[in-house]
Every structure is written in structure tokens, then in C-alpha cells.
Write a structure and sequence with these properties.
The chain is of the alpha/beta class and 138 residues long. The chain is 30% helix and 18% strand. Strands 2-3-1-4 form a four-stranded parallel β-sheet, covered by helices on one side.
């Protein structure tokens, strides 16, 4: 770690040593969204997760914070392929003044949609990708 990140502080290097890059820390993601909600100006927050399971776990982590259960303060929208057309349309609506919108989407949505009121983006830094095995022809 010291060789890869020589300019980072000792505390940062120590933290990087204990991070498991294969695991998404949903509590940390929820805390970051909460921090943005509490400390920054109005605007929607768009969160990218690799798949439906990760979207669901992120929504559950947000529900541990009462602010994200109060629709007069925030609206949390999962965005994935199994939503109805009506549920998908709600994501593009601008919420009332003083209400923060949080959209949690797969990273496939990153290049396929535009949500006009998004000001903040949180990316889990994980992707699901299909790989072809030429030997097994799969």
C-alpha cells in the first residue's frame, strides 16, 4: 500500500490495508448519502450499484435512518428493470421544494438515462459483467 499510495497519510494507508474491495459497505454508502443530504444544497442524489440485490440492500440501509423514511423530507427510488412503467416515470419527476430525491440504480443506467435534477452522484465502484468462455462456449 505504501508503494502504491506514497503521498497518502499513514492513516489513509492503514485504512486502505483493511478495505475488502470485494464487499460493498452498505452502512458506509447510507452514511455518505445521509451526509450529502444533511450538509449540501438541494438536488437529487443518484447512487450506482451493480445489481438488483445491491440496490435492495442499499435501500434497506437507508431505511435505518428515519430521515429516509419520511416522504416529506426524502423520496428514495430504486431503479431497475423489474419496475413498472409508472414506477419508472416517478423517478423523473421533480419532488416538492425541500424534499430530496435519492435514486439508486444499476450502473447500466449510467449511460442510458438522464435524470435532470441530479446534482450528486455516489458510485459503489463495482460492476457486474458477463464474460465469454470460448472453450466452454458460454
Amino acid at each position: 500500500i505504501k508503494q502504491r499510495f506514497p503521498k497518502c497519510s499513514a492513516a489513509t494507508q492503514k485504512t486502505l490495508q483493511i478495505v475488502d474491495e470485494g464487499i460493498i459497505n452498505y452502512e458506509l454508502v447510507a452514511n455518505l448519502i445521509g451526509y450529502i443530504n444533511d450538509n449540501f444544497d438541494d438536488g437529487a442524489i443518484l447512487v450506482f450499484m451493480p445489481g438488483l440485490m445491491e440496490i435492495t440492500k442499499t435501500v434497506e440501509a437507508l431505511q435505518a435512518n428515519p430521515v429516509f423514511n419520511d416522504s416529506s423530507k426524502t423520496r428514495v427510488y430504486p431503479l431497475h428493470s423489474t419496475l413498472s412503467t409508472a414506477e419508472q416515470k416517478a423517478i423523473f419527476e421533480i419532488p416538492p421544494q425541500g424534499v430530496r430525491k435519492v435514486v439508486i440504480a444499476t450502473n447500466i443506467a449510467e449511460t442510458s438515462i438522464t435524470i435532470e435534477d441530479v446534482v450528486y452522484v455516489v458510485d459503489a465502484g463495482r460492476v457486474k459483467e458477463n464474460r465469454e468462455d470460448e472453450v466452454a462456449q458460454m
